[in-house]
Amino acid sequence: MRRIAALLLLLLTLALAAATASAGFRPPLDADLQYMLNDSLAGAVHNLQVPGAVMAVKDARGNVAYFHQGLADIATGQEMDPAMYFRIASITKTFTATAILTLVDQNKVGLTDTVEMWLPGKVDGGATVTVQNLLEMRSGLEHFESSATLSHLIDTEPDHQFTLDEYLSYTNKVLAAPGAVYDYNNLNYLILQSIIEKASGRDYQSYFQDRLITPLGLSQTMVPYNNGLPSPYAHGYRLNDGPQPEDCTFRYATSAFGGAGSMVSTAGDLVKWLDALVDGSLLSVTSHRAQWDTKADGGGGGMSYGLGVARDGNTYGHNGNYNNTYTSAMFRYLGYDIVILANGQTQFSTGSSSATSIYSAVRTSLDQYLMRWD
Q: If pLDDT is split at 50, 70 and 90, which confidence band does 201 have?
């Protein structure tokens, strides 16, 4: 059985490697490539008019290069530094999904388990919503952002400690048949957070630490219990609500985002995490395959979503937006791992994340660079 499992893991790894790389030679992170990457980052930060961004890129040989542009603190003029901590927003979901799958591997949780089994009487329609529905963003549940009361609390009470019961007291409806429609919904991952705690008998912060963070040596990654940040950190800004950028670094209640978007990390740690996520080093072959079995989001583009992970063509990973103040992007593309963290969301961004817009610009430049080698 061990030989069969090892063979399956090898075949899966080779399949992902083949899917994320074309036949052409992939140049290492030499001086020319690093110059191009830095120039592309600088251009994107300027064009999008975000205060600043950092980027880490790892090539297929394991070499990592770091880049930074712009300001981490507008008031003091402090420049960005790749070692700075950021709120990584919905990249948190990749940790939450992987944590659930480690519990599946321990036979403590089943993907077909219903929410009612784990949280009896709490979630409207929970008897028909499965753990897999939550992971895939196909639960059909109402968004907690639809509650004006909850949104006000998040915006005005940074030390408020939210609970799932509090969320469900304001927003607790099934709007579509579970499994039928893709609908990106943070409430799904707040429910998964509670299931992790029920199944493990621990708070989700400590479970993440012991099962995900410590095994990979992610010394600069944490699940905060409050809205503080370790130093050095980049400030987060709202850019489109007035004539001047508003520093919102500590404005919002971090507990509101929990397993959906509360985590803090650095570009360097996220390169390590992305490697483990795509390669499946923390999961069984079966769970790794299930995580990356993505389904089209129904939007007519190329994006598809799996169990806390996304794919768009040759791009594998996830992005995030922390209340339009911090944005993040973490993707493997053609054998390169690319992490981008930015400290503002602007009207010039395409989609929900300035960091993703920066990634798109970097990817375009990388494609042009790689054409020289094909």
A: very high
